[in-house]
Amino acid sequence: MTPPFRADHVGSLLRPQSLLDARAELASPSKMYSLDVPEAVQRAEAQAVRDVVRQQLERGVRPITDGEYARHIYYGGFFEKLAGFEARPDLPIPDAFRTDFPTTTGLARMGAKTRAAVVCTGKIEYKESPYLAEWLALRDTLPQDLWKEAKITIPTPNYQHIQLKPGTAWTPDSGYTSDQQYFDDLAVCYAAELRTLHAAGLRHIQIDDPHLTYFCSPQFVSGCAKDGTDPDALLDLYIRTHNRLLADKPADLHVGVHLCRGNMAGSTHWVSGSYETIAYKLLRETDYGTYLMEFDDRARSGGSSRCGSCRGGRTWCWGWCRPSGWSSRTAGPWSRRSGRRLRSSRRRRGLVRRRRWSAWR
C-alpha cells in the first residue's frame, strides 16, 4: 500500500507553555489518568489545538495532528474510558511491575516510589469512544477536503499489560482467567474504535507501541526470565492482538504503527537494542500498512539488514530527528524534535527500493 504521505511525523508535539501552565495542577503522576478535567483546562487545550493546526497548515506539514494536546501523555484517555478498567494511581515500584522492567527501573533511579497504571477489574467492553471527541475537535479546525490529511494516534493494546507484574493486568474478580481472554476483548474494543473514528471521517490512524522495542532489550528479556515469562510467547501474543484489531478495519483506513525507545525530557530513553531481534516477526507477521521506526544510532537501534523482511505492500520508515536550518525561535512545537527525515524501504516484486524522504522542505 502506498503511504498516505510523502513524509510523516509521529504526531506528539511539544506543548506550548500556556497549555503546560493550564495543566499544572494535573501534572502529578497520581492524576495522570484522571478524567476530571476542569473547563479552563479544556479551553486551553482547544486553543492550543487550533494554534498548532494553524502552524501545520501554514508550513504545509502533513499529516495534520492535534499534537495530542488533549492528553497528559500519548497513552492518556484510552484505557480508562473503556468499561472494565480502573485507574490505580499509586502502584508500588518495583513490586507491582515486571522484574527489571526498563521504565520502572529508570523511574526508580529518578526517585519514583510509585507509578500509576490502569488495571482490568471487570468485563472489558466498548461503551463509548475514547478518542472520538479528540478527532471531532481536530476535524472542526479543518475544511472537509483536509480531513483525509489528518491523523490521530492510539496507544497500543499491550501498554498496561506489558509493564504490570505477570498475572496482575486483570484482577481475579474481573472474570478473566488468562491473558488471551483479556486481549481478545481488548482487540474487539480497538476494532470498534477504528470503525467509530472512520465513520466520523478519519482516514489515518497510528498505533503507538514503543514497548515492542523492549523485546530488543537484554534487560527486559532477562527480567522476563526471572518472572518465568517466555518473551517469545509474549511477543506472539501481542502480535496476534495487533492483527485482531486490524482484521476488519475499513478498506480505506490507513493504519500504521510507531516504535521508539522512549523520549522523556532531556532525550531520556529507556532501552537500547537492535531492531533485528524483532524485525522478522514485526514486518512479516503484522498487518500494518506503515512501520514508523525511530532510529538514533546503531548503538541504540542496531542495523536494518533484516528490515528487508517487510511484506509486499507494506512500508517501513527509518525516522530520525536532525533539525537542519530550522530556527528554534520560529519553529514553535517543531523545534528540537521535528527536523525529521524518513528513509523508506518498500518491497515490490521481490525487490527492495530505497529512497530518502525529507519531512520538512
Highlighted features:
single chain, 361 residues, alpha/beta, TIM Barrel, 7-stranded mixed sheet, two-stranded antiparallel sheet, 9 strands, globular, disordered C terminus
Helicity, in percent? 25-40%
Largest sheet: 7 strands, mixed
CATH topology: TIM Barrel
| Spatial separation of the terminal alpha carbons | 24 Å
Instruction: Name the beta content range.
Output: 15-25%
CATH class: Alpha Beta
The number of helical runs is 10
Structural notes for this entry:
There is one protein chain. With 361 residues, the chain is α/β, with parallel strands linked by helices. It has a single domain, classed as Alpha-Beta Barrel (TIM Barrel), CATH 3.20.20.210. It is 29% helix and 18% strand. The chain is built from ten helices and nine strands. It has helices at 17-22, 39-59, 102-109, 132-139, 159-163, 179-199, 218-227, 231-246, 279-285, 298-301; strands spanning 83-92, 114-125, 152-155, 204-208, 254-259, 290-294, 315-321, 340-348, 351-358. Strands 3-4-5-6-7-8-9 form a seven-stranded mixed beta sheet, with no helix packed on it. The chain has a two-stranded antiparallel sheet with strand order 1-2. Strand 8 and strand 9 (351-358) form a beta hairpin. It is globular and about 55 Å long. It starts with 16 loop residues before the first helix and ends with a strand. The relative contact order is 0.13. Keywords: Methyltransferase, Transferase. One of its GO terms (molecular function) is methyltransferase activity.
